[in-house]
Structures are given as structure tokens and as C-alpha cells.
Automatic annotation (TrEMBL):
The keyword Nucleus does not apply. Residues 401-466 form the Mechanosensitive ion channel MscS domain. This is Mechanosensitive ion channel protein. It comes from Notoacmeibacter ruber. It is found in: Membrane.
Length: 587
């Protein structure tokens, strides 16, 4: 039996919680670096200059109009959007870098690409006008001091990122200078090359082309009329898909009977329904209902997050089902001394479950950041505001992370394994489950005691099966001072020889450990192989020793020899002829 003080594990748990929070920030930082780095396509590897130099810019388009403003990133975007809305695609082509295209094809392709870019921007890019600099050098005065480009001129700016052929591509503005002319901001040549592919992926679908023109016009809400109709239809389809999948699996489960397949279907019904809903939602918004940017800016990250959460849910449920099969043995069986290996296995699997869930959750969070654009600045903000925001998030997450890491610390250090017999705050219990935030203990009378994991590790407890399940039990009897202990030793020795639960019989002993006026305190010691058999043996030993003492008690009237008796003291009053007796009874 060993006692475990809990102060040190709590400190270790807090350290692990802090380390996990740092890991969270590292994942967020990696996502931020991937989604918001500004090097861009084709930039030089050295320190950025104020512009990129070109020999000829859009020679095949002729001279741009006098009212064509391209001096700043914001003015360039305003000019492009204004021109394409007026269907002036030939003028809008001057906002594209077509210098790598044959001069003879620049006008035709410029008009075509400008119209296609209009559709892509309208449908998939949510422009943050406040972040678009209105300075010719493109410097963002709002940039964080931790941003490498803060306070510096920029010649390449990302407006957003989309997926094309399973790879991320950026839509970027670049500052170009042609000879002695003033530098201007236009869409980069790499963006121009990707416009056709982006249009095929995110342009009007066949469904939208089939719609009448009246439904494709924008409403006062900023979205097309058909989108107002398609949104409730899509929601109804998704709800129907979830219910159909869930009920189908539940119905199938009821027809297969008990067994492994029943458990698998029961475990995956809800996460599978969620996965199917997420996949159908992604397909609907990807190929049928290609919503505009005001809707898509929320829908795309929503589906990504939904699919990641559903996948995590599915993994957890499957893992839990496997663990339930492994843990199918009764807790009474694995608590036996010969099943030490089973207790070790169950504890390790329980720890592996929590580690896997943490890893999957952190990886899923990073995946959501990497695959969505709505959170592009989130990770940078987390790292950049290492003051108040980090403290607030860290304090809010400290308790939960501390509990999680405390449960991992218990499982990994094996201070208490599943199936161990422990004495916690006077309760003799068996460890039944080690969860993230609480430990489930089963008392000897089959009650479940739920203990917060932080509380458990911060208080000492006795583990009766930590190294060896052998336990020494004793019975106390108070006997008369005149009692002869040899007959009691003989009765005790006979009990030891006959009882099968007593091991190391030669180490059993009888000792007088105290005395007082009512008698002497005698202890009978015996070893048992485990706490359960020890308890039963202790009860039998107590009964046998009481019976033996009663049998050895002589029949001499009221005089007691073995069992303690009340003692009487006779006091004689010498001041009178008539003596009076008084009795003082003591225990």
C-alpha cells in the first residue's frame, strides 16, 4: 500500500496545460504564416523594393483612360469594380497585368478575364476595404508591430485565397512600374493566369445559367434573388439528409441484434449523419448553389469546421467503442491480483484516447485555419496580442487544460490505474474510469463516486494495489487483564491454518498493543492476497476470535476472566459504625 501526495502532480498538470496552450498558439501561428504571408508569386528573395519593373505593360490595350485610377491598392479595386459593374470590361482590362500575353491577344483575353474575375470576386472574395491601403506605397498603418511588413512599403498584396485543383491560389494586387511612368497597382500575372480556372470552379453553375435574369439580380440584402430561395431549400435538404442517414443506421442497428456490428452502428449513427450532412452541404455549395461572397464567406468555413468536428466526433466514437470492447470485462475481474496486465492495458488505452483526442482537436483546429480565409488574421492576432488577449484566453482555458493534463498525468504515471483499489477520503473504492475532467470510483457497496480530477490529484490517497495487492488485516479485541492469551493464540493459529484466504501463514501473529482500566487491547494480524479477500477474511477472523473468547470464559458466577468486565470498588465509611457501600463503575 502506498500513499501519494498530490501537490507535485498538480504543478505538473499546470505545466502541461501551459505547454498545450503554447502548442495551440504554435499551430495558429503556422496557419497564419501559411494564409497571410505576403511574399507572393514571383517576388524577389531579398528585401522588397517599392515596385516590380516591367518593360511594357499591356501594350495591346492602348493608352488607359485619363480617369483610370491605379495609384493605390484601394483606388485600383474601386476602379475595377466600378468598371465591371458598368460592363466596361475593355477599360477594366487595364487593371490586369497582361504583359506576359501576346500583344495581339491582350485585348481579347483582357476583356474575357476581366468579366471572369468580376464573377469570382463577387462570389468568393469578401473584400475588407479597411485593410486596403489608400497609400501609393501600399503601407498598412494599422499593421501590428509584430508583423514583419508593418510600417514598410508593400509591392504585393493578397486579397484572398481560393482552392484550385486542390492547391491554394491567391488573388493579388501588384505594384508595377513601366519605364519612367508612375508605378500602378494591377492584378498580378499569376492571378491573371488562374482566373480562367477559378471561373470554371466558382463561376455561375449550370443551375444558375438556367435561371431567368430576374432571379440573378441582386436584392437589397446584397445577394441575388435566387440565393434567398436556395438557402432554405439547401437547409431542408441537409436536415433531410441527416435524418435519413441517422434513422437508417438506427433501423439497421435494430435488425442486426447484439454484437460487434450493433455496437459499431450505435457508435457511428450520429457522427455518420453529421459527416453526410457536411459532405452534401459542401457539394451543394461547391457545384449546385454557388453562393456569392456575402454568403460564402460564412458558408465555406462553416462546412470545413463542421466536417472537421464530425470527423473528430466519428474518431472518438469509434475509439470509444473499441475501448468498451476491451473494457468489457467486469471491473471485479480486472481488480484481481492476477490481472495486473489487464489493468495496465486499460489504463494505457484510456490515456491513449485522451492523447489522440487532444492531437486530433489541435490538428483539426489548424486544418480549419489553413483551409478557410475568414480566419486569416486570427492567428496573427493571437500571436500579436500576447498581452491582454493571450492572458484572457489562457486564464479561461487554464482550468480545462489543467484537468485534461491532470488526468493524463494520472494515467501515464500509473499512480492510480483502472481496476486499482484505493482508499480516498475514507472510501474504499475501485478506479472504474479516468476521464478528462473527473475520475469515476466505485465503492464497495457499488455506489459511483465522481471526483473532479484536480481535486483527486491534490489530495493524498492510498493505493492498495499499486505494487502488490497483498494487504495485512487485523482484528482488535479488548480482553480481561487476567485472560490467558495462549488459548487465544492456539485458536487464532487454528483459524490461520484453516482459512484459504490467508497467505504467509507463518507471519500471522498476536500482539498486545495497549491496555486501560477495562482490559488489554489485543490484535490478531493476518495477510491476504488482495483487499477484497482480506476484508472477508477479517470478518471471519473477528467472528472466530469472539467465539473463542466466549468459549474460554469460565462459568464462575459473575466473575469474568477473558472478556472485559465492569470493575467494582467497595468504599467503607470509617466515620460511622454503619459502613455504606458505593459502586464506581468504570469501562
Amino acid at each position: 500500500m502506498q500513499r501519494f501526495p498530490a501537490a507535485s502532480p498538480r504543478r505538473i498538470a499546470v505545466l502541461f496545460a501551459n505547454a498545450l496552450f503554447v502548442l495551440f498558439l504554435a499551430v495558429a501561428g503556422a496557419a497564419a504564416q501559411s494564409t497571410s504571408s505576403g511574399g507572393g508569386d514571383g517576388g524577389s528573395s531579398g528585401p522588397p523594393s517599392r515596385w516590380f519593373e516591367v518593360d511594357q505593360l499591356n501594350e495591346g490595350l492602348g493608352e488607359p483612360g485619363a480617369n483610370l485610377s491605379r495609384e493605390t491598392p484601394q483606388s485600383a479595386m474601386e476602379t475595377f469594380i466600378g468598371l465591371v459593374r458598368d460592363k466596361r470590361y475593355e477599360d477594366a482590362a487595364h487593371l490586369l497585368d497582361l504583359s506576359h500575353i501576346d500583344v495581339a491577344d491582350q485585348k481579347r483575353l483582357g476583356i474575357e478575364r476581366a468579366a471572369q474575375l468580376e464573377a469570382v470576386l463577387e462570389r468568393k472574395i469578401w473584400l475588407d476595404w479597411d485593410s486596403l491601403s489608400d497609400r501609393p506605397d501600399g503601407m498598412d498603418p494599422r499593421g501590428s508591430s509584430r508583423d514583419a511588413t508593418a510600417g514598410q512599403p508593400r509591392r504585393d498584396i493578397s486579397l484572398g485565397q481560393l482552392s484550385l485543383d486542390y492547391r491554394p491560389v491567391s488573388i493579388r494586387l501588384r505594384r508595377l512600374k513601366e519605364g519612367d511612368s508612375d508605378p500602378v497597382w494591377v492584378f498580378s500575372r499569376q492571378t491573371v493566369d488562374n482566373i480562367e480556372g477559378l471561373y470554371e470552379s466558382y463561376g455561375p453553375s449550370r443551375f444558375e445559367k438556367w435561371l431567368p435574369a430576374s432571379l440573378t439580380k441582386n436584392t437589397p440584402l446584397g445577394i441575388a434573388g435566387w440565393e434567398l430561395i436556395a438557402l432554405p431549400i439547401a437547409i431542408a435538404v441537409l436536415v433531410a439528409a441527416f435524418l435519413l442517414t441517422y434513422r437508417s443506421l438506427r433501423s439497421l442497428k435494430s435488425n442486426v441484434g447484439d454484437g460487434v456490428l450493433w455496437e459499431v452502428l450505435d457508435a457511428i449513427a450520429l457522427p455518420a449523419g453529421s459527416m453526410v450532412t457536411g459532405i452534401i452541404g459542401w457539394l451543394l455549395t461547391r457545384y449546385l448553389f454557388v453562393f456569392s461572397a456575402p454568403v460564402d464567406v460564412f458558408m465555406s468555413p462553416l462546412w470545413t469546421a463542421f466536417l472537421v468536428l464530425a470527423l473528430i466526433f466519428l474518431i472518438v466514437r469509434v475509439f470509444d467503442t473499441i475501448l468498451e470492447r476491451v473494457f468489457a470485462r467486469n471491473i471485479d475481474d480486472i481488480s484481481k491480483p492476477e490481472n495486473e496486465g489487464d489493468r495496465e492495458l486499460q489504463t494505457n488505452l484510456s490515456a491513449a484516447r485522451r492523447i489522440a483526442l487532444i492531437v486530433v482537436a489541435v490538428a483539426g483546429f489548424g486544418l480549419v485555419l489553413l483551409q478557410t480565409t475568414i480566419f486569416d488574421g486570427m492567428a496573427v492576432a493571437l500571436l500579436g496580442s500576447a498581452g491582454l488577449l493571450t492572458l484572457v484566453i489562457g486564464f479561461a482555458a487554464r482550468s480545462a487544460l489543467s484537468s485534461i493534463m491532470s488526468s493524463l498525468q494520472i494515467a501515464l504515471s500509473k499512480s492510480a490505474k483502472i481496476g486499482d483499489d484505493v482508499l480516498f477520503e475514507g472510501y474504499w473504492c475501485t478506479v472504474e474510469r479516468i476521464n478528462f475532467t473527473f475520475i469515476q470510483l466505485r465503492s464497495w457497496d457499488r455506489r459511483r463516486i465522481i471526483v473532479p480530477v484536480d481535486y483527486f490529484v491534490s489530495h493524498p490517497f492510498e493505493n492498495w494495489t499499486k505494487k502488490d495487492a497483498t494487504i495485512t488485516k487485523y482484528v482488535e479485541l479488548r480482553l480481561n487483564h487476567l485472560a490467558d492469551l495462549e488459548p487465544m493464540r492456539e485458536a487464532f493459529q487454528k483459524f490461520v491454518e484453516d482459512d484459504e484466504d490467508i497467505i504467509t501463514k507463518n507471519e500471522s501473529k498476536v500482539q498486545v498493543v495497549g491496555h486501560e482500566a477495562s482490559g488489554m487491547l489485543v490484535r490478531f494480524y493476518a495477510d491476504a492476497r488482495d483487499p477484497t479477500s482480506g476484508w472477508n477474511m477479517q470478518c471471519r477472523l473477528r467472528e472466530a476470535m469472539i467465539v473463542a473468547a466466549a468459549r474460554l470464559e469460565p462459568k464462575r458466577g459473575d466473575q469474568a476472566i477473558f472478556l472485559p468486565a465492569e470493575r467494582e470498588a467497595k468504599i467503607v465509611d470509617l466515620t460511622t459504625d454503619n459502613s455504606s457501600d458505593s459502586t464506581d463503575k468504570q469501562n
